[in-house]
């Protein structure tokens, strides 16, 4: 945890000290309900809230506040600093803390796999270095600076996931975090509805390369590599990873196992070693490659990487495989977009291994004008890849169900069921499933598809 002096906040933000008591703060908060003694409260304004409404309650426990409107009455015995914009002040203070530390800062982005890759990087680096990472997925314009505020004098590396919903957002996050290393996992259809097309998604992700001296990129993603090659201003080092194409770091002899995947990690003159992952999916091999490549660039040995990455376990609702009531459940309900869904469907068919492959798919949100086409294409995809049962949940996924029926024709393959809401699907799920089935459950976070998992695991 960083210790902040009043003078440092004023230097970082250009703010004006209105009243003073505490000389230092032991942390920062934007939540008056959880602020701790000794912390400073940033009265950030949001779409549905204004932190200034809670300044007085925050100061009952906290030691000071950063505001852009004079509090009435002005509290006694508390440090109050007035700034032009409290959100900007939060970001500028985080940047101040970062640039006074001459340590590597790793920024991770991509359409799919960025959280897993960030966690894998942290898991590897923390075996050798004192490492700070984002808490949860605090990866936006508020969460990232709050994470940076946790930096302590002992930290040796910082690993930050960077998310975005619009062009320019990653550029701003990089201005705050000043990364030395940038990692791009892939370019896919996540956020395509918000940005207006795949090229716009790629351009937004590539903003991460405007600052770092080292870029870690996926050489099997041709669309990503095309974008990287067209960047004229990047003068740093590009290090690639791949399974199929030539790259600096590769995975060879990839094999699916009962617990996950095995592969040979090859890193040129740094050596090679067989790695046993405890997570399923070819996409997780790519995530492991990205994490390994980054870790190699920061001085980890290939044997150290093997030891660390083999301890990684899947997070809840992220392709989490379990067996209940004679059914194999793949709980991938954390989120969904067309590209991640297709990869998960491929793994479903592989894991089913001749038994029934059942896809329970909820609406993919935030696709906007692309939504209808994306869901109809999902229906065609499901019909063309060996899925035995397709259970659609939600209004938009019902379009996929209709398309799947049309694509299947008289063969009626797969069997198709459609439910308008999650509760109806949960109530009927065990009437459809059989022992021996392998079931993928996936949808956007707001669909709460984990309720279907409950419907299977709670069945008597």
Describe the overall structure.
The chain has 460 residues and is an alpha/beta fold. The protein folds into three domains: 4-84, Udp-n-acetylmuramoylalanyl-d-glutamate--2,6- Diaminopimelate Ligase, Chain: A, domain 1 (3-Layer(aba) Sandwich); 101-309, UDP-N-acetylmuramoyl-L-alanine:D-glutamate ligase; 320-457, Alpha-Beta Complex (Protein-Tyrosine Phosphatase, Chain A). Helices cover 35% and strands 22% of the residues. A nine-stranded mixed sheet has the order 9-10-8-11-12-13-14-15-16, with helices on both faces. A hairpin with a 5-residue loop joins strand 15 (261-266) and strand 16 (272-277). The two termini are 48 Å apart.
Radius of gyration: 24 Å
Low-confidence stretches: none
- Secondary-structure arrangement, i.e. CATH architecture of the largest domain: 3-Layer(aba) Sandwich
**What is the helix tally?**
16
């Amino acid at each position: 945890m960083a210790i902040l002096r009043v003078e440092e906040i004023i230097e970082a933000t250009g703010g004006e000290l209105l009243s003073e008591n505490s000389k230092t703060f032991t942390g920062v908060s934007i939540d008056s309900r959880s602020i701790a003694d000794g912390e400073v409260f940033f009265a950030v304004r949001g779409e549905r809230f204004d932190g200034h409404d809670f300044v007085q309650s925050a100061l009952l426990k906290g030691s000071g506040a950063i505001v852009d409107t004079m509090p009435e009455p002005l509290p006694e015995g508390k440090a109050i600093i007035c700034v032009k914009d409290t959100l900007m002040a939060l970001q500028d203070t985080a940047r101040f803390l970062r640039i006074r530390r001459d340590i590597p800062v790793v920024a991770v982005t991509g359409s799919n796999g960025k959280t897993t890759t960030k966690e894998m990087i942290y898991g590897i680096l923390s075996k050798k270095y004192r490492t700070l990472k984002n808490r949860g997925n605090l990866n936006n314009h508020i969460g990232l600076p709050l994470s940076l505020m946790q930096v302590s004098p002992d930290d040796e590396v910082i690993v930050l996931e960077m998310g975005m919903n619009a062009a320019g957002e990653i550029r701003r996050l990089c201005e705050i975090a000043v990364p030395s290393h940038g990692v791009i996992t892939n370019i896919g259809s996540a956020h395509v509805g918000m940005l207006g097309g795949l090229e716009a998604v790629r351009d937004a992700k590539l903003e991460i390369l405007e600052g770092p001296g080292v870029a870690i990129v996926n050489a099997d993603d041709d669309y990503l590599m095309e974008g990287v090659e067209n960047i004229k201003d990047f003068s740093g080092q590009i290090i690639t990873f791949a399974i199929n194409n030539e790259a600096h770091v590769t995975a060879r002899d990839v094999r699916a196992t009962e617990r996950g995947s095995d592969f040979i990690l090859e890193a040129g003159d740094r050596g090679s070693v067989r790695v046993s992952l405890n997570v399923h999916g070819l996409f997780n091999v790519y995530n492991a490659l990205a994490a390994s490549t980054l870790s190699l660039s920061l001085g980890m040995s290939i044997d150290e990487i093997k030891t660390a990455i083999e301890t990684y376990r899947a997070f809840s609702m992220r392709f989490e495989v379990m067996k209940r009531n004679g059914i194999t459940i793949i709980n991938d309900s954390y989120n969904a977009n067309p590209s991640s869904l297709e990869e998960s469907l491929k793994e479903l068919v592989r894991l089913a291994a001749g038994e029934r492959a059942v896809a329970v798919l909820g609406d993919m949100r935030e696709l906007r004008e692309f939504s209808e086409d994306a869901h109809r294409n999902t229906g065609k995809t499901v019909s063309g890849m060996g899925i035995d049962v397709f259970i659609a949940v939600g209004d938009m996924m019902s379009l996929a169900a209709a398309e799947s029926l049309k694509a299947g024709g008289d063969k009626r393959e797969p069997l198709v069921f459609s439910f308008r809401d999650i509760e109806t699907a949960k109530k009927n799920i065990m009437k459809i499933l059989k022992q021996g089935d392998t079931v993928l459950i996936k949808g956007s976070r707001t669909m709460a598809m984990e309720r279907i998992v409950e419907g299977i695991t709670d069945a008597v």
